[in-house]
Amino acid sequence: MKIELKEIPIRDVAKNYVDNEEDGVIGYDGTLNIRPKYQREFIYDDKKRNAVIDSVLNGFPLNVMYWVVNGKSAFEILDGQQRTVSICRYVAGDYSVVIDGMPKTFHNLTKVDKDKILDYKVLVYFCEGTDKEIISWFKIINIAGEKLTDQELRNAVYTGPWLSHAKSIFSKTNCAAYNLSKDYVKGVPIRQELLQTAIDWIAGGDIEGYMSAHQNDPNANELWTYFQNVINWVQLTFPNYRKEMKGIDWASLYNEFHKTTYDTTTLEEEITKLMMDDDVNNKRGIYSYVLTRNEKHLSIRAFSEAQKRAAYEKQKGICKKCGNPFKLKEMEADHITPWSKGGKTMPENCQMLCKGCNRRKSDT
Fold first, then answer.
1. By the number of CB atoms within 10 A of the CB, which of 136, 248, 270, 299 ranks highest?
2. What is the pTM of this model?
3. What is the three-class DSSP state of 220?
4. Apex 234 CA angle, 227 and 208, nearest 5
């Protein structure tokens, strides 16, 4: 990993600055990728934006910035995007700040104040190394300013045609992927959360490995096709939408069950019943349960301490299975009639078993 500190005057950073909105932002005479396509919109509020210009005019130090070296004369901002855009937009005349009690754009400034800004030198670390080195190092220094999300950091490292195409689908405001999945997947497209979810789904958690392997692919059709398949399967399998469906790990369910044919009417009847069951604490887990039959997804309501004590006293401390006496702390509450067979979490359905008997019972 090679890291080199540079001092770069603002007049150089802002040279030929172009803001193409969601199509990206460039500067440094066309060699600096300030914001790649669809990475992140400008999020500084006016107060933070103006504070950057005040600091520059007063000669106060700005936090150091980090650029990734992508060749002999190509760079991409890893950290410092918001400060850089604030400076470049002001120099371009996009907004005014109050100076000496009056709002002034850059073009209204005296030559002295213009030169103060243009001659101000920002501190920039040029970072050059492998993908893993850059990501590992940046996770350590990403502690100030408007923090990058994990996926924004990956995007700064795995640039290429595959990523450009993927971001056009998953990272643009009201993009195709958002419009398709907004009711089922959490995340803001412009903060790369939707893209991260899509890659996580298809890669089984190895996001960086997948991005590295596909970095130079001509397009992201495989990712987009898989994502559409998952969402379409969800809509067909569970046609009656509920708010609990948003944020479920649908890819895991799709991977395991999409080849199975289900009676959607029967599934809906069971889901409706479970939604009304007071013993089911995790309503979102119902969708996983009706496919896997694993009760852990439901977080079935446990017996209260008062119910356990009452059952223990009624049994006089004797385990209902092995018939041996135990202290209360050595026993666990158990449903006499299992929840799966209609048993409810109520006092008359509670029995106390020693830990050994209860765990052997759970394993059968």
1. 248
2. 0.62
3. coil
4. 30
d(CA 83, CA 296): 47
In terms of Cβ atoms closer than 10 Å to its own Cβ (0-12, 13-18, 19+), residue 146 is: middle
What does the alpha-carbon distance between residue 53 and residue 97 come to, in Å, rounded to a whole number? 8
- Joined together, the tokens standing for residue 49 give 């934006």
The total of other beta-carbon atoms located within 10 Å of residue 145's CB is 16
Token digits for 2?
Answer: 């090679």
Yes or no: say if 268 and 275 are a contact pair by the CB < 8 Å rule: no
pLDDT by residue for the chain (364 residues), tens digit each? 788 899 999 999 999 999 876 667 889 998 998 876 544 555 677 888 999 999 999 999 888 888 888 876 788 887 888 899 999 999 999 999 998 889 999 999 999 999 999 999 999 989 888 877 777 776 666 544 456 678 887 887 788 899 999 999 999 888 999 999 999 999 888 889 999 999 999 999 999 999 999 999 999 999 999 999 999 999 999 999 999 999 999 999 999 999 999 999 999 999 999 999 989 999 999 999 999 999 889 988 889 899 999 999 999 999 999 999 999 999 999 999 888 888 888 899 999 999 999 888 765 5
Burial annotation 210-247 (CB, 10 A radius, 16+ → b, else e): bbbebeebeebeebbebbeebbebbeebbeeeeeebee
Q: CA Rg, the chain, in Å?
A: 29
Instruction: Name which of 306, 261, 254, 302 is nearest 281 in CA terms.
Output: 302
Strand order in the sheet with 65-69: 2-9, 121-128, 65-69, 75-79, 32-35, 25-27, 18-19
Distance CA 119, CA 319 (A): 82
Q: Domains in the chain, start-ordered, CATH in brackets?
A: 1-157 (no CATH), 158-241 (no CATH), 242-298 (no CATH), 305-363 (1.10.30.50)
Query: Number of C-alpha atoms within 13 angstroms, CB side, residue 201?
Result: 27
* Angstrom distance (rounded) from CA 196 to CA 178: 13
